[in-house]
Design brief:
5-stranded parallel sheet, 7 helices, Rossmann fold, alpha/beta, 5 strands
C-alpha cells in the first residue's frame, strides 16, 4: 500500500511512521510519500525579497522538517519519496494525495483542548473534507495543563475585569 505522511517539525507528526515500520516488519508491501507543506509568505515580505531567497528558505525549512521521517523510513528499509509543496496545508495535502494515487493519508497530531481546536482548526479535518482518500489521524501526548486550565481561567478573569470596568 502507498501512504502519504504529511510532516512538520513536531514529534507528533512522526507517529504514523511507527505503524509503517511495524507493517514492514510483518512483511507488508509498504511505500511512503513524505510531504512537507510550507506556507506562502506575506505579500509584503515577498515584495522585498528575491524569489530565489524565498525558495531557498522554504527548502531549508522543509528539509529540516522531513529529516526525522526520512531517516526512520530509510532505517526501516521502507521505500519512500520526499516532496515539498507551497500553499495552504490542507489543500496541498489533498491535492498531492490525489496526484500520487495514495491509498491512505496518515497524519500525526498532538492533543489539544477543544478551545484550541476551535481557534486553530485541524488540518486533518480540512484534508478529510477535500478528498475521498481515507485519512487516519493518530494523536500523541496529553493536553498541556497550561492550555487546559491557565489560559481559559486567564481569559475568564480578563473578561470579568472588562465587565467590572464598565
Amino acid at each position: 500500500m502507498k501512504y502519504l505522511i504529511p510532516v512538520n517539525s513536531s514529534r507528533a507528526a512522526l507517529i504514523p511512521i511507527g505503524g509503517l515500520e511495524a507493517a514492514a516488519c510483518r512483511g507488508a508491501d509498504v511505500e511512503a510519500v513524505v510531504l512537507n507543506v510550507q506556507p506562502r509568505l506575506n505579500r509584503h515580505v515577498s515584495r522585498f525579497t528575491h524569489k530565489a531567497d524565498r525558495e531557498s528558505f522554504r527548502l531549508e525549512r522543509s528539509r529540516a522538517a522531513m529529516a526525522g521521517a526520512i531517516e526512520r523510513l530509510a532505517r526501516a528499509g521502507i521505500p519512500h519519496r520526499a516532496l515539498t509543496e507551497v500553499g495552504v496545508p490542507a489543500v496541498r495535502i489533498a491535492a498531492v494525495a490525489e496526484a500520487e494515487g495514495v491509498d491512505e493519508i496518515l497524519i500525526g497530531v498532538a492533543r489539544h483542548p477543544r478551545w484550541v481546536r476551535w481557534l486553530n482548526p485541524s488540518i486533518a479535518d480540512g484534508v478529510a473534507a477535500r478528498t475521498d482518500i481515507p485519512v487516519a489521524v493518530t494523536a500523541h501526548g496529553e493536553e498541556s495543563p497550561f492550555e487546559r486550565y491557565v489560559v481559559p481561567v486567564g481569559i475568564a478573569g480578563l473578561a470579568a475585569l472588562l465587565l467590572v470596568a464598565d
